[in-house]
Amino acid sequence: MISKRAKYAIKTILFINDHPELAPMSAKLISEKEHIPYKFLENILRDLKSHQLVKSVRGAEGGYTLGKDPEGISIAQIMRIVDGPIALIPCVSERYYEPCSECEDEETCRIRKLFNELRTEMLPVLERSITTLK
Amino acid sequence: MISKRAKYAIKTILFINDHPELAPMSAKLISEKEHIPYKFLENILRDLKSHQLVKSVRGAEGGYTLGKDPEGISIAQIMRIVDGPIALIPCVSERYYEPCSECEDEETCRIRKLFNELRTEMLPVLERSITTLK
DNA sequence: ATTAATCCTATCTAATTGGTAGGAATAATA
DNA sequence: TATTATTCCTACCAATTAGATAGGATTAAT
């Protein structure tokens, strides 16, 4: 299961992308329209900003805009920022790899092999640009 | 990420299936060979038993055997028992469905659509019989 | 000066994860 | 029959994570 944080982050990015006419978009508005607790949303936005997924404008009339071309933003990117690995076990994660403490031989581990295959199936779905979501 | 509980459960089922000559298999042996904390393993086995994935024989020389034909056991089954849903958001889970509290319209939700597609890609991998794992 | 924003640090509560403790019940076998 | 090896059961516990909330400093438009 992904966290609420991740779901909120995805909603936020989609909402900003859907409403270019309201740029820069205030956290208050996002919070109200997407039913995300305001202070929690602030945290999430800070996280997204530190990873360049959004940019901010300070002061009155300020708010957030996407940090890069929406074509280049995927759900996978957002998930990795807020939840960490996409893979379901750490020993098959590319970016967050960690060996399993009790595993005897990673090369022949059937569990690892299966979850590696699983990750391979998952990635293309999650790495599509957010602009392709309908 | 799946829990350690789930990984231990999978290892346990595979180990029992791999060693029919040691049936019934004691928790002590599984614990030692697969490096799973004994008391924790007991919990997991109880859980697997209550879902008919293993059967037990009590007393000295007792232990555990598979609760059904290994052809009929999948990683998905084990994961559902110990971790719950396979789907990454509750609103696309078949067996553990729950609506998203903040969602306005499930039918048109793009996030839901994507994660539903994701689940559809994941299931065939996880629902293969454990006997096919190499 | 006021107001509406972002930014920052810190704190809090509840649930979950990963595990442990202690012992009762059962059955093989010496 | 006593011992031993096992499953079975209830309860507890510590650390971490999830999901926020609090309070205020900073910035900029009006």
For the structure shown, list the relevant keywords.
homodimer; 134 residues; mainly alpha; Arc Repressor Mutant, subunit A; two-stranded antiparallel ribbon; 5 helices; 46% helix; DNA-binding
Describe the structure.
Chains A, B: GO terms for molecular function: DNA binding; DNA-binding transcription factor activity. Chains A, B: Keywords: DNA-binding. Chains A, B: This is Rrf2 family protein. The structure is a homodimer of 134-residue chains. Chain A has 134 residues and is mainly alpha-helical. Chain A has 2 domains: 4-66, Arc Repressor Mutant, subunit A; 70-132, no CATH class. In chain A, 46% of the residues lie in helices and 6% in strands. In chain A, strand 1 (54-57) and strand 2 (63-66) form a beta hairpin. In chain A, helix 1 (4-18) crosses helix 3 (38-50), helix 1 (4-18) packs across helix 4 and helix 2 packs across helix 3. The longest helix of chain A is centred in the last third of the chain and has 17 residues, at 110-126. Chain A is elongated and about 60 Å long. At the A-B interface, helix 1 and helix 5 of A face helix 1 and helix 5 of B. The first copy, chain A, binds a DNA duplex (30 and 30 nucleotides) through residues 3-5, 24, 26-28, 37-40, 42-43, 45-46, 49, 56-64.
